[in-house]
Amino acid sequence: MKKILFCISLFVFGLSTVYGDPISEEEANIENEHLKELASKVKYKYEKVSDVYDSDGNYIKNGYKVTAENLTEEIYVCAAKGTTISDFCLFYTEPDVPDANRQDYVYLTDQDYDRFVVYGASSFNEYASEKIKVAKYNKYSEREECKDVDITKFKACDPYYEYEVTDNIFNYQLNEYKKNSGKDNTSSDNTSSKDNKDNKKDSSSMSFIDYIKKYGIYVGIIVVVFIAGAILYKKIKDKRGVL
Fold this sequence. Notes:
About 45% of the residues lie in helices and about 25% in strands. It has 3 helices and 7 strands, in the order H-H-E-E-E-E-E-E-E-H. The strands form 2 sheets. A 4-stranded antiparallel sheet has the order 4-3-6-7, sandwiched between helices. A hairpin with a 5-residue loop joins strand 1 (about 45-55) and strand 2 (about 60-70). The protein is elongated and about 145 Å long.
């Protein structure tokens, strides 16, 4: 659909060039400045997507949905590779139009194109250009070692890692990730062991204190009886010595 609209745009531009009323140089300059200002406000929003179909029905396993924001009816955007301008274009779409019928976004995979170029709807002039910020899909992210890992610490497992991953890079980061994870586990184990020892110590101290509190009265009675018996025994022994 985007390709059809692009062709229609070129056709209308051709008609306006041939049959349109000529404009003065001053008017052309004012129009160009106006379109440059509009083009400078165009922003691009990137969203990672998986298992989607583009407007032509092509299946995309992993890629980006790129939306052109702040487009108007006076300007549109086309993707380009090098000096070649494609017919892969984005157009202003009313806000309430359903997503499936919108013309202000495209799906891109890897580095299909180099840049986005903003053109005027009434003239095929380039008014702005911006590099396309699409990272190449990282196939290493599908490896078994990447399951359930923290990709902020093991970046070679990030599906859209900004740098190209090789076997050497992947294996190096894998070893570093394992090494750092091992340190974290060891530290955790040491902390747990220390806590267990402290808990056992506290438990022993509390057990003795609880024992005293619970059985202190009985211990006291036994001590008093023992002392009284010792005194009584001494008195009886002394009396027998006098007799």
